[in-house]
Amino acid sequence: MRKILHVDMDAFYASVEQRDDPALRGRPVVVAWRGARSVVCAASYEARTFGVRSAMPALRAERLCPQAVFVPPDFPRYKAVSRQVREIFLSHTDLVQPLSLDEAYLDVTEPKIASPSATATAQAIRAQIREATGLTASAGVAPNKFIAKIASDWNKPDGLFVVKPAQVEAFLTPLPVGKIPGVGKVMQGKLEQLGVLTVGDLRRFGQEELQLRFGSFGAALYRRARGIDERPVQPDQPVQSISAEDTFATDLPLSALEPEVRRIAEKAWNASRKTERIGRTVVLKLKTAQFRILTRSLTPESPPDSVQAFTEIAVGLLQRIDLPDDTRYRLVGVGLSNFHDTEEVPMQPGLFG
Length: 353
Prior knowledge:
By secondary structure, the chain is an alpha+beta fold. The protein folds into four domains: 4-10 and 76-168, Reverse transcriptase/Diguanylate cyclase domain (Alpha-Beta Plaits), CATH 3.30.70; 12-74, MutS, DNA mismatch repair protein, domain I (3-Layer(aba) Sandwich); 189-225, no CATH class; 241-344, Dna Ligase, domain 1 (2-Layer Sandwich). It is built from 13 helices and twelve strands. It starts with a strand and ends in a 13-residue tail after the last strand.
């Protein structure tokens, strides 16, 4: 039986800004660049009471909360704080799996520092974060990652929630089925048609029936409804994808996108050189002016071995966009995915191979 923590910093970027500027404390703070194309990176709890959320357009946030203070993001500063927090995690266990700058899973089944329980370890970590950074963190304690992540959100901000093994079924039963990872609005609608509104409702269905209806995801639904999650905490997850994207100042037609694709492909390729793994699949992402997202991908017989080869594939994917000519695009992204270790990738033989 594992003892898993999910630790999540509270309104991280906004909290750092409020910590470093006393004039922002107690005020609705929105971390975002101003502008028609900007999106919210983070919102303080004071701003959230007005409905402001991360990833929403900054213009909408401004309409919802006209009195909000907009602060441009300072990622080097946030990364510095994140490193402080990571050091605290690592003082308790080597099994730390970061999910982003502000959250991570920890396996404290066998902690470095003697502790009477996983709950006590979580309390100690939260206290050390507060002392070292002046910020608060919320934590969930559970037998696996799935339940720990839900639990960490239970008593936010500055909260701790524990789900013991014997409490798993009672904890999950009344939860909305949307709490299960992967159950978005579309899947939620399909489940509602079956009378499934809660995790308890989902538990009425057997694995075979769920797989028949939803394929491999049906098996995942069956396991999650019963609180089963055997995924280990993985400290050094191998790179799976690397990408870069940009939102244009004005919407562009498809015919004007090639220079943008070339520019962004170079950024993505340079980022991919920081790993020794090899990416095999080139991905092009476009977002229309109506916020429709399109992706096109190609896995060549031999992985791209230069920025030129990578870029030409990305540019070629533009030919596979078949929307009307008057469609305008607001964003383009280029990525490399399907990464493998070097020895796993068959390379193109040489001319005399």
